[in-house]
Amino acid sequence: MSDSEQDETGAGAVMPSRRTVLVLGAAAASTVVTIRPALAQTAGSVLNCEIPVPGPHAAGSYIGADGTPVAAGTPGAAPPLARPLSGEQARVLLRGSTPPGVNPQSAQAYANYIRRLQAGMSGFTCYASLQMPR
Amino acid sequence: MAAPRYIADPEDQVRIVALDGLSVIFHAPSGMTHIVAPPTPEILTALRKGPADAAELLRRLSAHYEIEGDDVAARLNELEAAGLVRRA
Q1: What is the CATH number of the domain that holds B80?
Q2: Which of A71, A102, A112, A128 has the fewest CB atoms within 10 Å, measured from its CB?
Q3: For testing contact with chain A, the best of B43, B48, B64 (most A CBs within 10 A)
C-alpha cells in the first residue's frame, strides 16, 4: 500500500485515491467466516476446525523453519503432518507450545506455516477464526 | 431470466472494523459477527450506492480498483449466504 494514498469512506472499507488491485478470487475460495451468537457453539466449531499442514497446494512438501513449503527431505525442515491439525492444536502451536502428537522440534515451523496462511488457502478460515477473541 | 440484483444494509446497521489484512463486520440486524477478507468490505461499500447485479457491481468496483478475476457472482452468493447482502 506504500504507493497509494487512501482515505476512509467511513464504512470501514478503504477507497483508494490511486488504483489498487482487488482480487475477486476463485469460486471455491471463501472470504467470509461467520461467528454465530451462540458462543459455546462458536468455540466448539472453531476448536474442531482443521488446518492441513501443508495444504493441498503443497502436498508432500516439507515445512521450512520460516513456515514456507520446501522440497521433501530438505535438511532441517519439518515433515508434512499425516493428519490435519485441529483448531485446538493450532491454537496451542500459535501460543508457542507443542500440542500432543506434534514433534516439538517441528512445532515452530508448523506455527509459522499457519501464520502464513492467506485467504483461499486450505485452513485459512480456521486460522482466522482462532484470531477472534472469545 | 434477469440476473439477480443485490443490496446491502445501510452503513448505520453494519459496523466494519479493518484489522491487519482482514476486517470484522458486526451486522446489527442479525446480531452476527463475521471475519472477512477482501473483496468483501469493498463489495458492501459499492452496494450501498444502490441495488446492483453482478455486472453492475463489477463496473462499480472497476471504477476504483484494478480487478483480478471475474467471479463476483461467487462472492455475492457467499455474502447472501452469510446474510450480508440480500436480493433487491
Answers
A1: 3.90.930
A2: A71
A3: B64
